[in-house]
Write a structure and sequence with these properties.
By secondary structure, this protein is mainly α. The chain contains eleven helices and no strands.
Length: 287
């Protein structure tokens, strides 16, 4: 045998360690997505925008807590705070959603993801969970700061603290609804293109283009049309659900007796976005 045909042993061996399976892959994608949402493990440039948003919403919460502790006046309750911060959350989602899914499309790594044992549903579930957690935390942590400021400066007994906690928990639930709606819409739009700029523009456009429709419908002479105007935009849709579930929240939206309609549309919107996401990635996985 000639020297050129000699087979050299360069040390390749079969993997004999533990095989962690789908659960470990799901967890790894979830943690990576959550870290990516805040730019952790990436360059300083990637951290600027998400942490700028974190700083703004936290500063607003600290100011509200300080005003309440000094004056006893509640400038914004927990639900109103989430509504007030919603525009910042839109731009946060417009940046983060393309980071979570558009990069994978552009880099062409999805065939590697969908090699066994990961499935399309696992991939989507991990990305959605990471995005929901990131958006919810962005609202929930400042709400916690507001609660701590109220509980330890303006409340005189445990009964008052418990009452304040009873206000905080619906606020956290309301923030979760915001996170689900924003995540569903944001990830669905971002999954349609591998170009992050197009995805970000599409996400912002959906919210900006639907808001004027609400304004037009709200000035119609029909009372029913005015009360159902909020159904035309995701932002006012969530506010309508909050007004229905917590009538004392004073979201500023008149929904009349159509609260259940708002809730049904919100759930349908989230479910539809998730199902379309799943169908989109099942098609990608089959290629």
């Amino acid at each position: 045998m000639s020297e050129s045909s000699v087979i050299h042993d360069i040390g390749y061996q079969r993997y004999t360690g533990p095989r962690l399976g789908r659960g470990a892959v799901f967890g790894a994608i979830y943690v990576h997505g959550l870290r990516a949402a805040y730019g952790l493990g990436r360059s300083a440039k990637a951290k600027i925008f998400p942490w700028l948003v974190v700083g703004i919403v936290t500063l607003v919460a600290v100011i509200l807590a300080a005003v309440r502790s000094q004056t006893g006046v509640v400038p914004l309750n927990y639900i109103q705070f989430a509504d007030a911060m919603s525009w910042l959350i839109i731009f946060f989602v417009a940046i983060v959603a393309p980071e979570l899914v558009s990069r994978d499309l552009r880099a062409g790594v999805l065939p590697l993801y969908f090699s066994r044992p990961l499935r399309a549903a696992d991939y989507i579930g991990a990305k959605v969970a990471a995005m929901v957690t990131a958006v919810w935390a962005l609202l929930a942590v400042p709400q916690l700061i507001m609660f701590l400021g109220a509980a330890f400066t303006t409340k005189k007994g445990m009964s008052d603290v418990w009452n304040e906690l009873g206000d905080l928990l619906p606020g956290w639930g309301y923030s979760l609804l915001w996170a689900l709606v924003f995540t569903g819409i944001g990830l669905l739009i971002a999954s349609l293109t591998g170009k992050r700029a197009f995805a970000a523009g599409g996400i912002v456009a959906v919210f900006l283009m639907t808001t004027p429709v609400v304004g037009v419908l709200s000035i119609l002479p029909s009372t029913d049309a005015q009360e159902m105007a909020g159904l035309a935009s995701p932002m006012t849709l969530v506010s309508g659900v909050g007004q229905w579930l917590v009538p004392t929240a004073n979201t500023g939206l008149n929904i009349g007796s159509f609260g259940p309609v708002y809730a049904i549309e919100a759930l349908t919107l989230v479910a539809t976005c998730l199902l379309l996401l799943l169908a989109r990635y099942r098609r990608v996985a089959a290629l």
